[in-house]
Specification:
Blueprint lengths: L7 H4 L42 H12 L3 H7 L12 E2 L12 E3 L17 H7 L2 H18 L3 E2 L24 H16 L4 E7 L18 E3 L2 H8 L1 H8 L4 E4 L3 E2 L2 E2 L4 H11 L5 E3 L9 H6 L21 H8 L5 H17 L19 E3 L9 E3 L10 H12 L1 E5 L12 E4 L40 H8 L3 E4 L16 E8 L26 H11 L2 E8 L14 E6 L7 H9 L22 H4 L10 E3 L7 H7 L17 E10 L48 H13 L33 E11 L9 E7 L12 E7 L8 E9 L5 E3 L4 E3 L13 E5 L5 E6 L5 E2 L7
Parallel strand pairs: 2-3, 3-4, 4-6, 5-7, 5-18, 6-9, 13-14, 13-15, 15-16, 16-17
Antiparallel strand pairs: 1-2, 7-8, 10-11, 12-17, 19-20, 20-23, 21-22, 21-26, 24-25, 26-27, 27-28
Helix pairs in contact: 2-12, 3-11, 4-13, 5-6, 5-13, 6-8, 11-19, 13-16, 14-16
The structure holds 1-deoxynojirimycin (NOJ).
1-deoxynojirimycin binds next to β4.
Length: 885
């Protein structure tokens, strides 16, 4: 039997360091810099007070009323690492028809499964700037999850947001801007959840580097110190949009925020997520980041994953039987457990998983037909674990379209591209060809061998195949020579002036669970240089050939300065991380079947030092808690460069086409009148009501003669332990050492809340801009990207970035001469700032007379190509302007 060591990767970095934690394993918080605070926020707001979830909660209330204590604690926790088919498996309440839930990675496809589609990564999807494709990819992925019988999709990822170019997991998300992340995530969630699959927005929040992210015996995970305004305007923004889109689950991050671990941070979970954003679904921990039993429950966590303590596989949990005990002895109020379990059950009803939802038909642990049902048990019952269900349908088409439309043409001197299929081509670089050992040869793709279609770690899927560039090129071009090397060969004869060299280079990164060629998840070794001497390969090719095309498969930005201005380097394509469809998506662009239409989801600077140290560099080791302080505030990526007047090599949003577009006839119209402060929120509706007395100890007794599986996590207690706990609880004498600020009185909720994602008025459309986009190139068809950036009025009492992305649209493919009318919208939130004193979103452009001052809506094809502007005060628009940056 072939076991795929699916889970082991998570253990490797932990084993020497983890603490045996059977209670509260973390000491007092480390000091964080002045001004960064995770204030206590209790109790957890009950779920169920919003109309959009009312029906699901009504069903859940009825269901939960029938559950025993042990059934409740069974479904709020995993049953143990490697104890079922999926990466996370909850317990069940089979008596009542509630199954074990299957939670499965990743954000780019069903992980560790056969017969699925390995979609392009998030970063590639972001680079399409195409809302329809963002949604279509979500629909296709949701169908595959459902077809495989999973309940919960562990994606999308918007945290990291891409603050640090060297950060290891930026590629799992959609780009270094909150609005690009937010819109892509919301559309993905919508697509996935329409298929009856619970989507999970992750990692909440501040997980902007991989190194030192986890708590262990010797050191807490790093503290991301984020001030209130920066949190709201940058990092929380995509989470708020995801909640607004109705996301069913949120996964907390490994690290701490403002000194408090994200899995038990009451300020973040109870306060920000569940009260201000009105989140009605369930909050799960990231894997093995559960470090306290009672405290995490009180702080608002609803599900611990995969169920174990942070030393997995020994059969210990801080919840399951311990949560049962904590409720019996009165430490965790039953009210909190009821809310946890109601949130889980309501989310299940909301996605209609009570109706014919398939059970898992695949195994993350083996590709064999039969295998142990609980691999971590060592001696486990054996049965059928794989049914080899093919869920691919025609999803390769969506995957290819995303890969193709994400390809970003950075430079095309002398219109070298598109190439003719009759050109003589020499292809250089090992990355043009699939890994000779197979595309899945390295566990969790933790190597950079052959074509790079995804990064490494838990955010991957197994390739069903990898259409590599060299095969696709050979299918199109009769005269091609392939040099499968990253060192420029010494025996190349003199090329003729028209010969073309196509050079493949890469940059890889991933999750901290693996180190690849010295890179610990983050790009700490190779930094922003191409791997395997790629920059030198380009330089050498440029010495020899007159016409060099560079194709870059990369997780993020690179410094291109050593070759970008070489006159022979005429064309550069960033193909990002294309997934299984790397080949044909590229040749469709190379040979001009379609024009490139991708745009950069981040800026490419000339030097790493173009950013301030807080974002340019990773935080290194220190004793105690590593402090990652967001001293740059709002100023990341183009916001930072623009503030400091630094011109990047290629700006955020940059991308060329084979054709040209004009933007004309702009108009702007006010839609919803704005006041300084949003209209008052409505008060919370009713939530499920249950008995709050401590349940009978008998609800927790181990059943007689139950065939226990070794190391499996159960929620029952031995009779005497249940009785003892109950006696303590009923006597009410021993009081748990509750955290500062602890309360059990439900709050009305902050003014900034009131709906999913915040006050519903934040989504009121304030202005609508329309314009005509015309393909004026004459030769090639193409799709245009239209990007809208807001500039706040002058003389407002807030420092705001010069321009900030607020909306974008992509045209359909326009034939030469064709036009399309494009509409872009600005909401109330888009023109607001988060006021830390008022604790609300204010529209600073509203004057004392109630009139709204001049917001400028800049429209263009990139953050530095903004030639058209519309003004909110006069309602006029102008064209042919000097860009503001
Ligand atoms: C750790 C990762 O951070 C998270 O993204 C993933 O979903 C879980 N492990 C499960 O593999």
């Amino acid at each position: 039997m072939v076991y795929r060591a699916r889970a082991v990767w998570l253990l490797l970095p932990l084993s020497p360091f983890v603490s045996v934690s059977l209670g509260r394993s973390v000491g007092p918080r480390d000091p964080v810099p002045e001004g960064y605070r995770a204030a206590p926020y209790y109790p957890t707001p009950h779920g169920g007070w919003l109309d959009s979830w009312r029906e699901a909660y009504a069903k859940a209330e009825e269901f939960v009323s029938q559950m025993t204590l042990a059934e409740k604690t069974n479904i709020t926790s995993g049953v143990g690492f490697w104890m079922g088919p999926c990466v996370g498996n909850t317990g069940s309440a089979e008596r009542l028809g509630f199954p074990r839930l299957c939670l499965q990675d990743s954000a780019l496809g069903v992980a560790s499964a056969d017969n699925i589609t390995a979609f392009p990564a998030g970063i590639t999807t972001g680079a399409t700037w195409d809302k329809a494709l963002m949604y279509a990819r979500g629909v296709a992925m949701g169908k595959e999850y459902r077809g495989k019988g999973a309940n919960v999709h562990l994606g999308p990822s918007v945290g990291p947001l891409g603050r640090k170019p060297l950060g290891g997991r930026n590629w799992e998300g959609f780009g270094s801007d909150p609005v690009l992340q937010a819109k892509a995530a919301a559309l993905h969630i919508q697509g996935v959840q329409e298929q009856g699959i619970i989507a999970t927005i992750k990692h909440f929040i501040g997980n902007e580097q991989e190194m030192y992210r986890m708590y262990n015996l010797f050191q807490p995970g790093y503290s991301a110190n984020i001030d209130d305004r920066t949190l709201h305007e940058i990092y929380l923004w995509p989470f708020a949009e995801a909640v607004h889109a109705g996301v069913g689950a949120v996964m907390t991050a490994y690290n701490a925020v403002n000194g408090s671990a994200c899995s038990q941070n009451s300020y973040l979970i109870n306060g920000i997520l569940k009260d201000e954003l009105g989140f009605q679904g369930m909050v799960m921990s990231d894997w093995l980041s559960h470090i306290s039993g009672v405290d995490s429950a009180l702080a608002g966590l609803d599900m611990n994953m995969p169920g174990d303590t942070n030393i997995p596989l020994f059969g210990f949990s801080l919840w399951q039987y311990e949560l049962t005990r904590s409720v019996l002895n009165g430490s965790v109020p039953l009210d909190r457990l009821n809310d946890m379990v109601t949130r889980v059950v309501a989310t299940w009803y909301k996605m209609k998983q009570d109706k014919d939802h398939p059970r898992p038909n695949f195994s993350s642990n083996t590709r064999d037909r039969e295998g142990p049902l609980y691999p971590a048990a060592l001696i486990s019952p054996v049965g059928q674990v794989n049914w080899f269900v093919n869920v691919q349908e025609d999803h390769y088409l969506v995957a290819r379209q995303v890969a193709q439309d994400g390809i970003t043409l950075l430079k095309n001197n002398g219109s070298l591209l598109p190439l003719s299929t009759s050109s003589k081509l020499s292809v250089f670089g090992t990355h043009a060809q699939v890994n000779p050992a197979g595309p899945n040869a390295c566990m969790n793709r933790a190597c950079n061998t052959g074509t790079l279609g995804m990064g490494w770690g838990s955010g991957v899927a197994d390739y069903p195949y990898l259409d590599d560039p060299i095969s696709a090129i050979k299918r199109r071009v009769p005269d091609v020579e392939f040099h499968n090397t990253d060192r420029f060969p010494s025996n190349i004869g003199k090329p003729s002036p028209d010969d073309v060299a196509v050079v493949f280079i890469t940059s890889d990164s991933g999750e901290n669970s693996f180190t690849v060629e010295g890179n610990h998840g983050d790009r700490d070794a190779d930094k922003l240089a191409a791997w395997h001497g790629g920059d030198k390969l380009v330089q050498d090719a440029a010495q020899k050939y007159n016409n060099v095309v560079v194709v870059v498969h990369t997780v993020g930005p690179l410094i291109l300065e050593s070759w970008i201005d070489h006159p022979s380097v005429k064309a550069v394509l960033f193909a990002h991380l294309p997934g299984q469809e790397a080949g044909e998506s590229l040749t469709n662009i190379l040979f001009g079947d379609v024009s490139p239409s991708g745009h950069l989801p981040y800026s490419i600077t000339k030097a790493a030092t173009d950013y301030p140290d807080s974002i340019a560099n990773l935080r290194g080791f220190t004793f105690g808690q590593v402090q990652d302080t967001y001293s740059e505030g709002l100023y990341i990526d183009y916001r930072s460069l623009n503030k400091r007047g630094i011109k990047p090599r290629f700006a955020f949003g940059h991308g060329l086409s084979y054709t040209n577009f004009t933007f004309s006839n702009p108009t702007i119209r006010p839609v919803t009148p704005l006041s300084l402060v949003p209209p008052a929120r409505s008060s919370k509706g009713p939530t499920p009501a249950y008995a709050t007395t401590i349940p009978a100890a008998s609800e927790a007794y181990w059943p007689d003669n139950f065939p226990r599986i070794w190391r499996y996590l159960y929620s029952w207690l031995p009779r005497n332990e249940a009785d003892d706990a109950y006696a303590i609880g009923i006597a009410g004498e021993k009081k748990y050492a509750y955290p500062d600020g602890y309360s059990t009185v439900q709050k009305p909720g902050p003014a900034a809340g009131g709906g999913e994602g915040g006050n519903p008025a934040l989504w009121d459309v304030a202005w609508e801009v329309q314009l005509t986009v015309t393909n004026v190139g004459g030769k090639h068809a193409g799709k245009a990207s239209v990007q809208a950036y807001v500039q706040f009025p002058e003389r407002i009492p807030y420092d705001t970035p010069v321009v900030q992305l607020r909306d974008f649209e992509k045209t359909k493919e326009l034939a030469p001469g064709d036009s399309e009318t494009v509409t872009l919208r600005l909401t109330r939130k888009d023109v607001s700032v988060w006021d830390v004193e008022v604790q609300n979103w204010l529209v600073p452009g509203v004057g004392l007379d109630g009139k709204v001052g001049r917001y400028t809506v800049w429209i263009g094809e990139a953050s530095d190509k903004l030639f058209l502007a519309c003004y909110t005060d006069t309602g006029e628009c102008e064209t042919e302007l000097e860009p503001p940056v």
